Amino acid sequence: MTYRTIFLIFAVLMLYTPTEAQAEDDSGAMELLVQILGQTEDAGVRASLMRGMLTGLDGQRNVQQPEGWQALAVKFGKSENKEVRLLALRLSQVFGDAEATRRTLALLKNPSEDIELRRTALHALLGQQNPEVSQMLATLIDEPKLRLEAIRGYAAVENPNAAKVLLSHYADWEPPLQRAVIETLATRKQYAQALLVAMKNKTVSRDDVPAHVARSLSLILGDSFSQVYGDVQQLAEDREMMMAKYKKMLTPAAIKKADASHGRAMFTKTCAACHLLYGTGGKIGPDLTGSNRANLDYILLNSVDPSFDVPNAYKMELIQTVDGRLVSGVIAEEDAKRLILKTVEQPRLVITKEDIEARKTSPKSMMPDGQLDKMKPQQVMDLIKYLRTTKQVELPQ
Predict the structure, then answer these.
(1) Which of left, alpha, beta for 96 (phi over 0: left; psi -120 to 50: alpha)?
(2) Is residue 136 in some structural domain?
(3) Would you say residue 155 lies in a domain?
(4) Residue 377: is its pLDDT beyond 50?
């Protein structure tokens, strides 16, 4: 590794993890990075450095443009390397360049452009809370390859037509997209009220609302949600009774007859959004692969009452942003300028501190209470059998 490479890494890290003092003014670090960019002709180094800058600036908007950037942006815009061109465009947008935003919008609107470039453009524009891209989402959901990102885009930027657009398509979409709609509509009060109406008129089934989303909706809507959905259960007081109920059901003979493959399918549906098992799943909660899964009491305690003993790293953080968005997740990183959450919907959600209106750390786990109660007895037995396996099994055919 050359001294130049070491210097590049150190310079990018200055943006990755700003201290309180650096947070006051990191313009010097930015200008230093721009100087280094201007001195290298290696497209790979340029791309790596700009990716690092974007990661360090993730979640920020209208950052002061560092001296010398404008000339570099023009130069990189003519680069033969497509990634260099796109990264420079994204940085210019973060630096508040109106022309860069116009070009990014044009790229997104062009259906003949590379889909990954368009997807990157969409994420960049949503990250900057661009109002024009919010109006484009109704059209973008007609494109299958951008549909999921467009659905989730309504959470990033509030749009008065969001609920109407999403619910008008709800019945025609597959379950993963329907779930994304429900999760999106649970992020803002106006959206949540429309979802509640859809639940009342049976456009959206109560059973389609995951337990973790029900908890968010209960926080937003209060009693009006409980009257339609039912109580969002708090099981801690009845822990022993519930443990006894499931231990009576889950006899050795019953578990022996259960189907681990169907249990894996149940795990994929209810647990995999947050938990890894055998290398597959989400990374919000603990990796279950090495946990004490052979012990039935351990499994039941963490399923019946997941908030009984929650490590600090997995406590739920509730965030209300200044524009009315409600977000819940566990903290992945935090520094002087921003909070990075791991949520069910996004493995890395960046929120700048200036965008946070209210914040609360809940003693509860991200895993909702009552997961097993939503299943049929055979589904519970299949899931428990799968959780107690020592190697991966095939999904049912």
Answers:
(1) left
(2) no
(3) no
(4) yes
